[in-house]
Recover the amino acids of this structure.
């Protein structure tokens, strides 16, 4: 690893952006921005374990934080840096952007204008904050000795607040040395990998821990309030009213908030998109409820229990519910009190899909029912969510790396992603922008297929191979919203199908869908018009244009997809189709490596007739040029492109496209959207090393702006590939560049923006974690393997399989290696294993204290272990492998 770092320092030629240009506070910022030149200390800091990223009030780092804390497919509720909830995009408005707006910019963007919309990065240059369509909050009433105070839990009321950015559970600490208590908030919605239903509850849980640090007993009351803004957009003062009603169940008590038609006929009103209800509750049956909290400053009178069980007010009047829990705490002791904010807005509709509604309505009749379910199962839901958080961050990999590669899956808990009553997953590209679960964008998103594989299997079967597949095998790239395939989306979908097969416990998914999978793969082969194995049919792609010619990134992606088709055909014993796929892939590889490689990187060979009269990447250095090989690493495939040429291409990307400060480049190349600003690092989509006058063929096309942008999803894809190819420092640097662009001092760390907020492609970040672990898995074959790219001597990281997840560790001492798979959740069936070891002499495999008969072989620096029979381990058990 030392040589890798030295080589990086010698060859990178970086000019690091300083603290001043980044406008970051000096305190607490890593050595990433500490000097203008990379040195050994800075390089080492990329690899260090470090500490959890903690944002502080004292450094002005809380104002933009918006961590999604609702269930997946349930709308967007943000947890703010000070613990208050905000945004509240749960009313099925289907708006574009978390805050639809247009902001002025100092340069032309895409179409020549100087206005930036949500889909152009409005929230990147003008981050949203304090979007509060309803009033919500919590406060602490503290009584000790002769002192009694009420302190709201907000940024203005505490000397210091810290926010630990550990998605899916955040920890917020409130500090005031003058008070005899330590207060911690744990906020989350249940999030359990492999359990998409319990991870899709429309609820936010806020669990307060209060410790008495003084010498006398204290009485602590936690007060929560929630304004009734149900029917936020469609309630009319003359026809509607809002109602707060006390509700309770076993072990919980709260207030349900709703709206109704005056006179009682809700038949029309109930069809509106924002019709529904909310519930504020404490998971404590001794809680005090108030249906109509008085306005004005907080006093003890605000939350005294009232006799009334219901309060009704007109639409123009403020109606707030309040719930309070009270605890007496002895010195040195602590208590925990938990609140739930739930919601129920069933009328989700899209123009192309009528009458679908929200998935959570299958289980619940209203918000109170959601709270009842959460209370009934709270011990399990909270324990398993916390177990996942602890498992994920139980790693030797850097804290910041674990945060950045995982947190983008929070996109599923925003209005980018939805789940219909039928169970169907449906999504925009980014919040409210570009509908139809677009294949050429979502195929980059590696996280979902690894964390919630059932959602992806269903989408492949129900949509891509069902609703969207045409008689010729082509897959409409936006489902019902489109009438044509996109070639990169088609290839990426076949690769996703192979991943979904691997993330299954058996072969039933592959067997059931094989005829359609075969057609989808054959469609790719058929787009090779001249029979040279290189796709050349002009078709739509993710850069929103129809490109002609033979294009390296599309050709390579198609080769990888057809190779995946070959491997699936072999499993299906479809020998003829496997042979046809192999012929195509082998021919395509040979021709791509000879015709599209210019001696340094891979290019776009123009159409022989049209030449460069149409848009394309041509001789430029394109960010996705070896994307096919990158995808292959995600599914444990052998090489689909020559290693030496692929590494040369990646080094060219590092040489020409990565910039520690993009400012000078974008000043000379205007027109792109502002996804990276002067003083920030990133990888440009396309550069022009040959310095051609018109490198992209045409002079005036709005899509040309894309080529001058830093889009994080593409950057994550490249970082994952570099990690797999041994360019570890470059991979970490690129990932860190994205991470620092989204530092909380500047913008929301949880919102990677491309075409609108919470853009799906950014979930490619999980792929970098996959390649950092060298993880490969094939559930139906019972195969698992690891080849860590860093910290191999003492490695530890989480893993997720088709039916279980846990922690993998390896310890290397001299010629002896110890590998341990410890399962934390579910189960895991294994028959073959693969680790790095050049010349093993002996192996021993034990499970739960039992030695298992096994054989082994060694090839290409790896040991392949075959168990005599499959072994199934359960949560709490371990599989131990000793190699010498």
């Amino acid at each position: 690893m030392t040589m890798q770092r030295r080589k990086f320092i010698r060859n990178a030629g970086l000019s690091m952006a300083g603290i001043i240009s980044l406008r970051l506070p000096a305190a607490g910022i890593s050595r990433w921005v500490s000097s203008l030149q990379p040195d050994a200390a800075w390089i080492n800091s990329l690899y260090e374990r470090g500490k959890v990223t903690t944002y502080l009030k004292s450094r002005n780092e809380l104002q933009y934080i918006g961590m999604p804390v609702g269930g997946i497919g349930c709308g967007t509720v943000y947890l703010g840096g000070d613990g208050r909830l905000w945004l509240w995009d749960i009313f099925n408005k289907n708006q574009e952007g978390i805050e639809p707006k247009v902001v002025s910019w100092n340069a032309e963007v895409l179409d020549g204008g100087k206005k930036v919309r949500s889909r152009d990065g409005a929230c990147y240059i003008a981050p949203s904050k304090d979007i509060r369509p309803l009033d919500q909050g919590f406060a602490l009433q503290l009584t000790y000795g002769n002192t009694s105070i009420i302190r709201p839990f907000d940024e203005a009321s505490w000397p210091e607040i810290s926010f630990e950015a550990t998605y899916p559970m955040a920890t917020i600490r409130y500090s005031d040395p003058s008070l005899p208590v330590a207060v911690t908030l744990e906020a989350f919605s249940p999030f359990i990998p492999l359990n998409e239903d319990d991870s899709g509850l429309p609820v936010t849980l806020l669990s307060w821990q209060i410790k008495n640090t003084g010498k006398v007993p204290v009485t602590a009351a936690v007060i929560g309030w929630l304004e009734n803004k149900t029917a936020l957009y469609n309630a009319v003062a003359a026809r509607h009213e809002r109602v707060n009603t006390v509700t309770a169940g076993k072990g919980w008590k709260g207030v349900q908030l709703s709206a109704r038609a005056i006179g009682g006929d809700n038949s029309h009103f109930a069809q509106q998109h924002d019709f529904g209800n909310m519930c504020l509750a404490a998971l404590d049956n001794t809680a005090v409820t108030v249906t109509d909290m008085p306005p004005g400053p907080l006093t003890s009178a605000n939350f005294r229990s009232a006799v009334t069980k219901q309060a009704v007010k007109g639409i123009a009047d403020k109606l707030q519910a309040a719930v309070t829990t009270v605890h007496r705490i002895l010195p040195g002791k602590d208590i925990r009190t938990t609140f739930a904010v739930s919601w129920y807005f069933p009328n989700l509709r899209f123009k192309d899909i009528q009458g679908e509604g929200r998935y959570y309505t299958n289980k619940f009749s209203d918000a109170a029912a959601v709270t009842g379910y959460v209370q009934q199962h709270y011990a399990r839901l909270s324990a398993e969510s916390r177990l996942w958080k602890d498992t994920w961050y139980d790693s030797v990999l850097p804290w910041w790396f674990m945060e950045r590669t995982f947190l983008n899956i929070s996109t599923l808990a925003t209005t980018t992603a939805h789940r219909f009553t039928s169970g169907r997953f449906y999504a925009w590209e980014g919040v409210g922008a570009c509908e139809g679960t677009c294949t050429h964008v979502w195929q980059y998103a590696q996280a979902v297929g690894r964390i919630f594989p059932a959602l992806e299997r269903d989408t492949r079967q129900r949509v891509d191979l069902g609703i969207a597949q045409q008689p010729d095998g082509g897959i409409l790239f936006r489902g019902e919203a489109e009438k044509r395939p996109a070639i990169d989306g088609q290839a990426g979908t076949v690769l996703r199908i192979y991943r979904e097969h691997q993330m299954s416990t058996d072969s039933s998914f592959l067997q059931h869908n094989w005829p359609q999978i075969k057609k989808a793969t054959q469609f790719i082969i058929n787009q090779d018009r001249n029979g040279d194995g290189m796709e050349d049919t002009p078709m739509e792609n993710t850069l929103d244009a129809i490109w002609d010619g033979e294009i390296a990134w599309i050709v390579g992606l198609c080769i990888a997809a057809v190779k995946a088709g070959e491997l699936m055909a072999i499993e299906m014993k479809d020998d003829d189709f496997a042979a046809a796929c192999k012929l195509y892939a082998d021919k395509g590889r040979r021709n791509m490596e000879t015709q599209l490689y210019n001696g340094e990187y891979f290019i776009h060979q123009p159409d022989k007739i049209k030449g460069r009269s149409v848009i394309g990447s041509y001789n430029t250095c394109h960010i996705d040029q070896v994307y096919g090989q990158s995808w292959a690493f995600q599914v444990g495939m052998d090489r689909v492109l020559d290693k030496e040429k692929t590494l040369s291409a990646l080094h060219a990307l590092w040489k020409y496209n990565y910039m520690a400060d993009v400012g000078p480049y974008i000043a000379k190349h205007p027109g792109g959207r502002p996804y990276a600003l002067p003083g920030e690092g990133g990888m440009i989509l396309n550069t022009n090393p040959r310095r051609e006058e018109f490198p992209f063929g045409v002079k005036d096309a709005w899509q040309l702006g894309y080529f001058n942008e830093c889009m994080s999803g593409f950057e994550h894809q490249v970082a994952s590939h570099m990690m797999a190819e041994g360019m570890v420092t470059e991979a970490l640097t690129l990932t860190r560049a994205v991470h620092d662009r989204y530092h909380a001092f500047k913008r929301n760390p949880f919102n990677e923006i491309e075409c609108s907020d919470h853009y799906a492609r950014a979930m490619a970040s999980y792929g970098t974690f996959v390649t950092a672990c060298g993880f490969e898995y094939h559930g139906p074959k019972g195969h698992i393997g690891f080849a860590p790219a860093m910290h191999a001597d003492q490695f530890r990281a989480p893993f997720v399989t088709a039916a279980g997840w846990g922690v993998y560790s390896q310890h290397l001492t001299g010629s002896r290696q110890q590998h341990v798979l410890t399962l934390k959740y579910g189960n895991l069936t294994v028959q073959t294993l693969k680790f790095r070891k050049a010349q093993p002499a002996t192996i021993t495999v034990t499970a739960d204290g039992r030695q298992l008969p096994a054989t082994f072989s060694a090839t290409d620096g790896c040991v392949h272990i075959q168990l005599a029979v499959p072994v199934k381990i359960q949560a709490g058990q371990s599989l131990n492998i000793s190699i010498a």
Notes: The two ends are 23 Å apart (CA to CA).
